What does this fold into?
Amino acid sequence: MDFNFIIHCLPLFVAAAKLTVTLAFFGIALSLAVGALCAVANYYKVPVLKQLANAYIEIARNTPLMIQLFFLYFGLPRLGILLDGKTCAIVGLSFLGGAYMAEAFRGGLVAVSKTQIEAGLSLGLNRFQLLRHVVFPQALAVAVPVISATAIFLMKETSVFSIVALPDLMYLAKDLLKEGHSAESNFLLVISYLVIILPVSLFFSYLERRFRFAGFGS
Amino acid sequence: MLDSALSVFTAGRNMARLMEGLGVTVWISLASVGLSALIGIPLGLIMASPKRAAAKAIRLYLETIRVMPILVLLFLFYYSLSKVGINLTAFLVSILVFTLWGAAEMSDLVRAAVTSLPVHQKESGRALGLTEIQVSLYIVIPQAIRRLLPGVINLTTRMIKTTPFVFFINIPDLMKVGQQIVEVSGVRDYLASVWVYGFIFLIYFAICYPVSLFSRFLENRWQSG
It folds into this structure.
């Protein structure tokens, strides 16, 4: 292994990693927003919106991110909708992630037992208080492990972004490979992803422990 | 509009090639899922058993695989194996990598299914005078399978949705063939990319959706039982 080469390439990998982290951050944040909206539409059984949300969830969950991105990046411009690579990446990631997050929230909301809601109502809580003090904390405790697993999954999915011509880590590794430095670039590739994903993964396992308070009845 | 769609799919061997690509995708999925089950189930049983050291080793393997994007693993194996003198075709490398990942995930599902069974189930069996083999055969395994199957089916769709990654190591799967067709037809036909990628989108949906429905059906059915 050529350490001079590694040091020489380090800034390139830092830049690529920054791009990956930025896109993942916006993608995951939007996923949470989309997921929350779908879950609310489902929970309150809003007509039309509920059906739309469910159709969207099934479509997004049952197709690979790569084909979603291909369609956004190569298909839509031909229909007059031109999106650049970064926008495609964020839209694609939140299209996929929103559906998974919606399922995570839904799972949490469903897990709150009816007796809890009835108990809250009989204590005279109004709708908002019920949501704030009874439903939401318990739903979150159930949803957090699924949300964190989804966030990690989405971070790993960012590895395909080079197909929409973004200079991310995979793009860089492939580029350096052509120059015949496969050992060094593979090493840097692995280290970069470790540096990105390990802290997030540790943070989420901390979060899961923090949120494990609502173990009612089990 | 429809004319242009028709001409993209009927030109040359386009449709036949897409179907060949689909064949490659299906083959890789089936082989990886099958091998993952074959390797993952025994690993999961070891993890659920009281063998501490072996369970820890498998856990380490699982976490190592989980932290890396599968695309990175695929890339590493494809470009590194030949460096150490192991020459596999891209097709075999993809099955190897998907199996390494799938077996790890499968072992975790099996472990969870077996250890989630309440201890009193086994104890009641023993109290009734069943032998250890009978306890496994009539009490543990049937219940574990019920808990396991929905997760395994989910993993299957996840693996199918991961196969497009082989595009990166130039395997002529559905995605690669689609891209080649778009490159050629896109010159004449302005909407080629819309039709071809839309079609591939639908194919993936047509494969994965029924499988997910089946998994949900089993979950609902067995939850009440």
Remarks:
- Residues 142 and 199 of chain B are 40 Å apart (CA to CA).
- The mean pLDDT of chain B is 90.
- Chain B has one domain: 2-224.
